Amino acid sequence: MKKSLILLILGFTLIIGGCFDDDSNGLEEIKIIGLENGQIKLGEKYSFEVCKFYENGKVSYGNATWASSNPAVVKVNDEGEITALKLTTESAVIITAKEETTVGIKEVYVIE
Prior knowledge:
Layout: H1 2-19, E1 27-33, E2 39-41, E3 45-47, E4 49-54, E5 59-61, E6 65-68, E7 74-76, E8 81-84, E9 93-99, E10 102-111
C-alpha cells in the first residue's frame, strides 16, 4: 500500500510537471515563417509568425521581440507585422525575431 501510494504520487508529479514545462530553456532555433520570396510591395503589410525549436524536440509558435534593420524602409510592430514604407535599393532590410539570445532573421525587399 505504501509503495503504491509513493508510485502514485511520483506519477502524478511527473504528469503535472510536464504540463508546466518551461519552454524558454533549451531554445535552439527561431524561424520566421512567411513571405518566402522575401518580397513585399510598397505600401503593403504582412504578418510573420515565429516558429521555435527546442533541444527536447518541442516546436512551438509564439511571441518574440521584433526589430527591423531599417525601420524607415520596412517597419515591424510588436506582433511581427511589417509595413513597406519605401523601395529598397540594393540591400535587403533584415527583420529579426529574438527571444533571449536566440535570433531568427528574414531578408525583405520592397518592390513596386
